[in-house]
Amino acid sequence: MNNKALFTPCKIGSHDLSHRVVLAPMTRIRADAKTLAPTSRTIEYYRQRASDGGLLITEAIHISPEATPVWSIYPAVRESASHVPGIWTQTQMAEWRKVVKAVHEEGGKISCQLLHTGRVAQPAIAEHPLVKNKDYPLPPVSSSAVAIEALNEIDNQYNWDQASTPPRQLETDEIERIIEDYKKAAKQALAAGFDYIELHAAHGYLIDQFICDGVNQRTDRYGGSIENRCRLLFEIVEALVAVMGENRVGVRLSPIVNDPKTGKPKQIYFGVTCSHPTATFRYAISGLNAFPLAYLMLTEPRVGGLSLDPKSETAYSHPLSNQKYRELFDGVLIGAGGFTPQSAAAAVEDDVYDMIAFGRWFLANPDLPERIRNGNPLNVYQRETFYGGGDAGYTDYPSWDELVNSFSRKYGLMEQGEIGVTLKKEGSAVS
Ligand SMILES: Cc1cc2nc3c(=O)[nH]c(=O)nc-3n(C[C@H](O)[C@H](O)[C@H](O)COP(=O)(O)O)c2cc1C
């Protein structure tokens, strides 16, 4: 067996998982355009990636119209605009139930990632038939009326290339309504049968916009000190645990890490910056111990571009940044971002993380846990079909069995040891 450390059992709450290779949450922008619900293709996609005792995390699922981005000003996905799923209508909930059922039939567990995008959402959602002439609160809202700045120099995909509508600052007494929207979404997720929900508090979205003082300029009890900026995170977690029960709520955070050489953040999401990131995230992470969480997932800040050739992508050879947070969190810690099968096994072996979430490699390899276990070559992901479209690049990546039994080769193959190999050879890997 290869990468043995990934194939030991792991417990999350009352569930015994049989391996540590997790499907990372990935937006695919293939929801039904009218209902913003998953489709039969979505069911197939998750079923293909489910394994006995394996954990899948869904793509970001939006908790309300106000939370829903219309990605038309986001360069990579302009074509497919708003086809991202929600869980705020009965139809959406019922369709998610089918996804959950399919995953359970394969013996897998599934966590529902709940998202409010804050100032990333735009007013155009008001024109959607599900929203038009209804009295839903509309976006964009944020901790403060601080707009996302269009960056000329786009060094990663988490930025926009044109100006966005400035957000409205949420009133103090509106926060309760936001928490209520999260609770409603969690009740829907519970009704759909999800094993866990995951609060997406990372990547520059609403909760990150409260945690980080580059955006949060409030003077009420949700702004100013680190304690105040983390208050919304903790209040939402408390509300979600009250709905879901113990050990069924996960949280995702993306601690900002400054590069010691340049003093600049290694990765910035949607322009969200923070003046004292280590102190801020130390407080947020330790504070989460107060809740009976299923898990905490941390993003390693080392994936830039999401589009480079995997042989030469620097992410795969950058060192880990989040080890310092390990000792602060008492529960199951999942790492995500730039892992190869070998570096994932090493991170578990070295006790930096308990489980590893794979994004792009799992997107392209429906049987990723088995491929890693057997050391078989991996299908190479195709960047152009990450977001939007049909089956191509979604449900048509072959499993290893399908591959060896067919003559056609739609996708390239790469040996696991070849990932990041060009950099290693050139000696340019960052240590
Ligand atoms: C197509 C795509 C969509 C993504 N969507 C989400 C998302 O909805 N929620 C989230 O938390 N992260 C999202 N991410 C980030 C992934 O969860 C993961 O952190 C990232 O792919 C880096 O991991 P990798 O190097 O294994 O691909 C997305 C990544 C990709 C490639």
What does this structure look like?
With 431 residues, this protein is an alpha/beta fold. It has helices spanning 40-49, 90-105, 175-192, 206-211, 226-244, 277-287, 323-326, 341-349, 360-364, 368-374, 400-404, 421-426, and strands at residues 10-12, 15-17, 21-23, 55-57, 61-62, 109-115, 141-142, 168-169, 196-200, 249-253, 295-299, 333-336, 355-358, 378-379, 413-414. Strands 3, 4, 5, 6, 9, 10, 11, 12 and 13 form a 9-stranded parallel beta sheet that branches. The longest helix has 19 residues, at 226-244. It is globular. The model is unreliable at 154-158 and 425-431 (pLDDT under 50). The structure holds flavin mononucleotide. The site of flavin mononucleotide has 24 residues, from helix 9.
CATH superfamily: Aldolase class I
Summed over residues and divided by their number, the pLDDT gives a mean of: 91
Largest sheet: 9 strands, parallel
User: Which CATH class applies here?
Assistant: Alpha Beta
CATH architecture: Alpha-Beta Barrel
Oligomer: single chain
Determine the strand fraction and express it as a percent band: 5-15%
Distance between the termini: 28 Å
Bound molecules: flavin mononucleotide
Q: Give the domain tally.
A: 1
**Helix-strand string:** EEEHEEHEEEHEHHEHEHEHEHHEHEH
Count helical runs.
12
The count of strands amounts to 15
Q: What is the helical fraction, as a range of percent?
A: 25-40%
